[in-house]
Amino acid sequence: MKIQRQLWRRREARVAYTYSFILSVLLFFPLPQAPGIPSDAHIDKFIHIFLFAILTVVWLRALRAGIRVSFQYLVIPFSYALFTEVVQGLLPYRSADPFDLVCDAVGILSAYLIVRLNPALVNR
């Protein structure tokens, strides 16, 4: 509990929690079909990659991973991605899609590689 309180005091952690909450709202609530985009378009896959890449970066900043970025820091975004797909499968107006989970993983791993190449992104 003490570690959690210390984490909450940092601005980066509040940003990570807030972004995770907003992402949950986007992923769990029904969204209307966007006009002009056919329902079979795979634009949502690119959106998943983008959203989970951002999630990874904000959590790496919150955890101050920096130069010591390793796969252990990816537990949070991978767990969150799996959790969101399971919940979407349980909701009557959403559906779980294994390809969304793959795209989430692509976004997470892409952000991880970018941060590994440029640790200054999370060390500010």
Summarize this entry quickly.
This protein is an all-alpha fold and 124 residues long. The protein has helices spanning 2-9, 11-28, 43-62, 75-90, 98-117.
Total E-strand runs: 0
Instruction: List the domain count as a whole number.
Output: 1
Measured between the Cα atoms of the first and last residue, the distance is 25 Å
Chain-averaged pLDDT: 82
Helix content: 55-70%
Name the shape in a single word.
globular
Order of helices and strands: HHHHH
Report the biggest beta sheet as strand number plus sense, adding barrel if it closes: none
Structural class of the helix and strand makeup? mainly alpha
Our estimate of the beta-strand percent is under 5%
Topology at a glance:
Blueprint lengths: L1 H8 L1 H18 L14 H20 L12 H16 L7 H20 L7
Helix pairs in contact: 2-3, 3-5, 4-5
Please give a handful of descriptors for the protein shown:
124 residues, mainly alpha, globular
Characterize the structure shown.
With 124 residues, the chain is an all-alpha fold. The protein has one domain (2-29, 42-121). 66% of the residues lie in helices and 0% in strands. Helix 2 runs antiparallel to helix 3 (43-62) and helix 3 (43-62) packs across helix 5 (98-117). The radius of gyration is 15 Å and the shape is globular.
